[in-house]
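Journal club prep, notes for RB
We'll compare a predicted complex against what the paper describes. Inputs for the adenosine-5'-diphosphate case:
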Amino acid sequence: MSVLFVGSELFPYVKTGGLGDVMAALPRAIRAQGVDVRLLVPAYPSIHSAVDILGEAASFPDLMGGGPARILRAEAPGLPLYLLDQPTFFDRPGGPYGHPEDLATRFAALAWAAAHLGRVGDVDGWRPDVLHGHDWQTGLMPAYVAYGDGPRPATVMTIHNIAFQGRFQASILGDLWLPRHALTPEGVEFHGDICFLKAGLKLADRLTTVSPTYAQEIQHAGGHGLEGLLAHRKESLYGIINGIDKAVWNPAKDPNLVSRYDLKHPGRRLPNRPDFQRRMGLHEDPNAPLFAAVSRLDPLKGLDLVLDNVDHLVSSGAQLAVLGTGDPHAEGAFLQAAQRHPGRVAVFIGYDEALAHRVFSAADVFLVPSRQEPCGLTQLYAQAYGVLPLVRRTGGLADTVVGVSPETLADGTATGFTFDTANGLALGDAINRALALFRDPPAWRRVQRRGMARDFGWEGPARAYLDMYGTIPAKGV
Ligand code: ADP
Ligand code: GLC
């Protein structure tokens, strides 16, 4: 079987969140199961300059009005790639989602190029059996397959975050190389607009999302308007939890840490803490419980609930370290909190991969108070690194963190703390439960060890994706 993954991010070259991590790890994990998975991504300069370019797979005099384009064959370590090389759209500063003026056309170009590989194949005759798109940026891919001619590969759409849908005015339909009859509720139309994600969810053979609980939530109140469509397609919708890439997120091998450690050598974790405190400008207090967050500052991530609890944390003797970027209002509020509590609250506004690794090696409690969380990766990294996650019970957070309770402490299954209501009081209550357990070091260590011993590898999820591919009926061409 052969599969073409298509998406807008790829760690370590282009990443704004978990999508980049998944696009790097999941295709490699499926390859390890014997499937020929390749990946198509835009030829952003950070990718183009870093991978081996092997040749040209296809070329077009113009693609979606963005001028000449080529599909290049390339190779990242352990992963065959196709790069959509279209300089007007992709070779410029501004990040993957800047330049709103051509957001629709350039991701339509990516989706069209994927459909081309699926229908025509590359110069060497490689043609995938399955086109597997990720998030709204690839939502039109099943539409180009459905409305074009020639062979029809199977199509799969994975939802990493249903809040982002790619909605544009219907008047641009022609710019997207779609026929007029695509603009119907059966096609790409959604409340009078064009909606990329809706098109994919309507037209793809199979739909997946990144946790079982989120797969339920998006059929109900969490569907951001797409719940009806998803409930209608529930037989084709799979919730498959994400894994973690053990080559990148492993405290025993992590080159970013001053001291590497594992379950057998937990004492080796300790030197990471004063080093981290020094770097962040926190007092080198060995006893203060250290709470931390690493997150996009987006309202759905619920970091405002942490802001509500800053004074409570400090007056309880805790420290807080936050690494994040996004909403300018939230950035300002966190910086002010750090000014109010020098040495006890430290905030780094920006994106820093190495610092993120160090947070996990140093903190005691990792805060993920998300209003919605399709899967979430940081609570998995936290458990692997011996930090107790404190999460709101939603989406993938509910599926991957076992909250401390008398029962879960007794049966040894607890790995963190959970709360339900999305407000500061409920988070404060969970913080108090964490502080109480922190005062009982043997119990704390049991919960910590349980998290570190869990296997969040990609092998299980990769097999679940294979099973899902296996349910797609073979197509006539
Ligand atoms: P999302 O994709 O919604 O942002 P995830 O938990 O799936 O949430 O993934 C977030 C990823 O981005 C993790 O790998 C996390 O470490 C990383 N990350 C988020 N913010 C930052 C930051 N400011 N600096 C470094 N890494 C970050
Ligand atoms: C999205 C989600 C996050 C998920 C990630 C990878 O960005 O917000 O919960 O972990 O995609 O699937």
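Talking point for the session: Residues 266-453 form a domain with the Rossmann fold fold (CATH 3.40.50.2000).
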